[in-house]
Amino acid sequence: MAMFTSHHAHKSNSVFGAVWAIAVGSIAEVRASWRRRKNAELIQSMPAELRKDIGWPTSDILNEKNGDIRH
Q1: How far is the C-alpha of 4 from the C-alpha of 22, rounded, in Å?
Q2: Is 0.85 topped by the overall pTM?
């Protein structure tokens, strides 16, 4: 006996299904944004030398990219 399964998510034709998908996607985006912000805060709290070692841009680099070079 052959058994066939689909690897595609079932698409709901109902309004509830569409609203649910939007809500779940929105919640995931908010959580991802929160994680990015917390990670950026953590990295910014590190000493400048450590941030430089991991390749995190410093304010000097950002100012140079914006054309505000002050030497």
Answers
A1: 29
A2: no
